[in-house]
Amino acid sequence: MEEIRRYVMGEMPLAERNSFDRLIEKDPILKREVNGMRLTIANLRQHKKKRQEIRALLEEAESELPPLRAEDFDVEED
Asked: How far apart are CA 7 and CA 45, in angstroms?
């Protein structure tokens, strides 16, 4: 699995990558696993990007809100 991750992430040296390319061409199961890893990594990147966008929106919204004050709340005392 680590080898597939390294391949998909472009972390393999060229000679190792070329060798792995030949393995993928010959092994349909390996090819499916590589494609699955590509999809997983793409989904994780998209999820991370969306989280960053949401955080930025929240920070922007919080900066525009007035501070909370105790008198803004109706609390009945017993």
From this structure: 17
Which tokens hold the place of 40?
């997983």
Instruction: Read off the pTM.
Output: 0.65
Per residue of the chain (78 residues), what is the pLDDT tens digit?
899 999 999 999 999 999 999 999 999 999 999 999 999 999 999 999 999 999 999 988 888 878 777 777 876 665
Residue 13 structure tokens: 């040296």
| Residue found by looking up tokens 């590509």 in the block | 38
Distance CA 24, CA 30 (A): 6
- Whole-number Å distance between alpha carbons of 33 and 5: 10
